[in-house]
Each structure stands twice: as C-alpha cells, then as structure tokens.
Amino acid sequence: PEVELQIVHVDARVDLVGREVGDPIGGEDLLVVSVIPPRWSSPSLARQADAEFAAWAAQQGDAALARAKAELAEMGSGAEASFRKVDHRSPGTALLSVALETGATGIVVGSSEDARRGSVELGSTGSWLLHSSTVPVGIAPRGYARPVGGFTGVSCAVAGLDGDAAVIATSKTIAAGAGVGLRLVTFAVRLDTMFPTVVGPGVEDEIVAAAREQSESYFGELRAASVIDDGVQTVVGLGHGWRAAMDSIAWDQGDMLVLGSHKTDVLTRVFLGTNATKIVRYAPVPVVVLPA
Questions:
Q1: Prediction pTM value
Q2: Which mean pLDDT values do the consecutive 10-residue runs of the chain (292 residues) have?
Q3: Contacting residues for 253 by C-beta, under 8 A, at least 6 apart
Q4: Closest to 37 in 3D by CA, of 23, 25, 53, 21
Q5: Phi, psi at 81, each rounded to 5°
Q6: I need a labelling partner for 288 at 20 to 30 A (CA). Which of 45, 51, 266, 275 fits?
C-alpha cells in the first residue's frame, strides 16, 4: 500500500500483487506481475504472425515491468520489490495463482482506463478478481496518487450483518499497522422513484431517517459488545442515490475503505452483492475487499 497504485496498470496487462511480511501496511514486500498472452500451443498456418505477436507481447511485458521498477525507484517507497512476467490467457487467474503460490495476503489492481479520473471502474480483470479471489483484493481510483504522508485513516463499511465483526477486526489491524484511526461507515440511500408514492413523497425521507436511527443504534450495540471502543468514529452516509450518499461523507486523500463480501455455497472467496458493488463503484479512495 505504500506504492503508488496507479502503476499497476502501466498497460492493460499489468497488475501488482502485494506480499505482506509483517504488519498489514508497513514492511511488506511487493511482487509486480506482468501477464502476457501465451503463444498458441497447436501448429498454425500463421506461425510467422504468431511468433511476431508473441515477441511483441513479451516486449510489452518487459517494458511494463521496467516502467514499474523505475517508478518504484522514483517514489522511494523503500519496499522490497521483485518482478515477474507470466504467460496466461486470463490475467485474473494468473494473478490469483501467483498470489496463492507466493502466500500473498492481497492483490492490488488499478481501475479501468475508461474510468472517470478519481473514480473506481472495474475492468475485466478487476471484476473477475472481485467475484472470484480467495485473497483480499485492493482497487484504486483511476489516477490515484500516493498520499505524501502515507495513509491517514481506515474506514470500514458495515451493514448490520453477522460478518461485520470479522471485517471490523481486520480493519482495526490494518489501522493499527498504519498508525491511523478507524471509523465505521454505513449508508442510508434514498433511491429514485418514477411516480409520487400514494402515501406522500415525505415517507421516503422518514424511511431514510429511520435507517439512520437504526444505524446509530447498531453502532451503539457494537460499542456495548466491545467490538469497537469509544475512540472509533462512526458516520452514516445519507443521500439521494449512492453517489450522493458516498459524497455526504468527508474523505481525505489518505483514506482507505475496507469492506467485506458475501458468503457463497461454493467456497470462501470474494463475492460482491449489489450494495457492495455500488460502494466500490462510487468510492473516491482505494478500496480493499475481504473474502467471506
């Protein structure tokens, strides 16, 4: 996380895997992985074109790793970094395989090049990882610049579910490792309606107010159960739609957002529900998604 996350998409095939060897934020090693498509294994009539493409892809992979190495040296992160080029048709599968092979505790990717600057937009690799990875996945907004002073705060998104305690515990560990404060955030979103409701347009405001009151009550329960202490800040994002709800919360450039994913019957992995997907989409800061 001390590395400028925008370098993970030097080109469309470059992603970064962060391997933790100490606390969750400081002192970790980095493995920068460039995934390039392999050559066809079966004989082809277009062998010359295939060989030329393979050579071009290898050059692109080498250039991407060289650029990543140069940028790491320029920013002086101090992290131990290694570099690897991998042949695979699926970048997401390749990154997860490398992460499992090396015992990485997280995979970090950048947003799609089509994303609005400062926003998170999932490309095909990020989308696959955020629905299939068995290790935490971090994703940064497009154009994200590493905070000069490092991370300044960790926000943990909760939804009043049984899995919140585990996500909060991990967020507390991350915050402690970074030496920053922790806050809990939840959202009360008023969605668009096509026609006025029969009971009157003000009823939606009452529902949102009730949701906020319920959230504050939930925060109180977490404190009473010693899941969080009085030093943990709590905030409810309110708004007409998810973007407005997210924007209603004050975000610092050095903030990080942590959230959990849904359990599935298949295996323990990252699997985002509708609300979690929208939180990721509208987050103005790097997001770390934990497997169920």
A1: 0.78
A2: 30 31 54 81 59 79 87 75 87 91 89 78 85 88 80 90 87 90 88 54 68 86 91 89 90 91 55 76 90 80
A3: 145, 147, 152, 285
A4: 53
A5: -125, 140
A6: 266
